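Hi D.,

Good news: the full-assembly prediction came through. Inputs first.
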Amino acid sequence: MLLLPLAITWFAALALAPLDGRRRAVGAAAVAALAAAYLALVWLAVRVLTDGPVEMIAGGWGPGIGIRLRADALGITFALLSLAVLVAALAFEVLGGVHERSLPELVLFMATGLTGLFLTADIFNFYVFFEVAMISSFILASYGKEVRHLRAALTFTVVNLLGSVVFLSGVTGLYHVTGTLDMDGVAQRIDEAPDGSVLLIAVLIFVAFGLKLGLFPFHSWVAPVYRDAWPAVAAMLSAALANIGSYGLLRFGAGLMPQELGLTATGVILLGSLSILYGGLQAVSARSASEVIAWSSIGQVGYILVALGIGGPIGLSAAILFTMVNALNKLVLFLAIGLRGWLVGATFALAAFSVAGVPPSAGFFGKVAVFRAGEASGHAALLALIVVGGALSLLYMFQVYQREYWARPTKAPPSPLAPRLLVFALAIGIVAIGVWPEPLLALSGRAAAVLSGGG
Amino acid sequence: MRLSTIMTEMVARVILLPTLVTALALLVKGYTSAGDGFSAGVVAGTVVAIQFIVFGPREPIARFPSPRHAPLLAFGGVLLALAVAFAPLLWGDPVLTQYPRPGEPVVHIGALAFHTALLFDVAVFLLVFGFIISVLGGIGSFERHSQGGES
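Then the structure:
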């Protein structure tokens, strides 16, 4: 059943909407619903990976007429990743105590939007689920209700609404030149469309997803928002919602408009390189921990872009693998900086090692994959860049570690033990992935094969 | 403070029922002869909005069932829409499948045809209408709070 995960989160979100999310039972129910949806998703993933893509056309209409929903290896990989992040972040917040009644159902709505957009084969349906996820994230961003949280929410909402408009223009443009909203139809007919207009559309869509991802020239919102947002919310925004950006670039760029991506590959790699350097340098000079992580995330998405620009099975699977690893790092880092007390320093250090790409951590394999892609492209400068970026991340991460966990005596009382244990377990998970990376490597390979036509 | 004149008040009173009937007609027979819940909701919501504009927030609240229940209407609409959309999955059909299937006989009462798409439109109507009334009620209660001192 393709839609079971979607149905579970959607109905659960509605069922919990009238209830007070600050009560522990409601929070626990939301976590249970998300976990159930996750299990359904895992089951679907097993079917997709063994028997190939699962499809359904809404309303039982014929192909080309109805709205197509499809789970393939790429979509399911991103859905698995994003939902895992949401389960962890929501469980973290529920264990620590929820402050606002609407949090659990908003997270469930976001999960609905994310699952829906990763499992659709229709570009307008993609936009609709994209908005479901975005609208819940706008409200989530104000979670905490201090002035700084509201400021973060306002910046986030304004910038991302702008991004939505740009993306919708791109979708309209695609419909205009191809006459269809179905992804396969668009991919087939795009070659017959006039080159200039397709290039314009490609640029619009690139800008929209670049904004979402927080790439170098579109990064201005990232640092203030992640600095001011509540830690668990920052984790959800950066580790779950931002996946829309990389998924969109992969699906629309490599999947629907491969020619345009090939044409602009040099520019894409250049922007990615600038992102890596600029984000890294800003992170070194930033002061607070959350600001460093925010700048670091700008640098890290640069690797995704570089890998995407290199393209081919190696580059695309590196981009997917790096997205996964990066999301897990961000999740642990943002959750850890909200905590105080025993175990937290160790948790932060583990995730920081992963960001810097020190073995044995998941980050090491992410970096290796990008490095291999760089090697395949044959540019020595790219390899140097990846090494410099890694050195920068090691530097800024340990600056933060020194300031937060060595130099500053903890005045604040330690946080409750349960969330600390949860985050520590997640950090151990990152190391475990680094020790046994084969499943993740295989998954990213399968997902990349979807884009290069291997099914 | 009331901006309306006797003329606008009379017009607002007179158009209320005919517009609601029009909305009902739109609901069961839309532009391509299936129902159209969205425009029905907008039309019905607009006429209630006119009541709020002409008479101020107090009188419509006194005359109609309290707008405090409107969120429930919208909520019920969403639940019904989702239920109609996802129910076919239970017996193995794709989402949003319409019954009876094309070509099968449909129950008619006069010109009114009963099929599950109509149920979906009713749900959309409830959602749109309920949402508009909730917003109006919210604005109205805000105005009453801010004017609480006088009258």
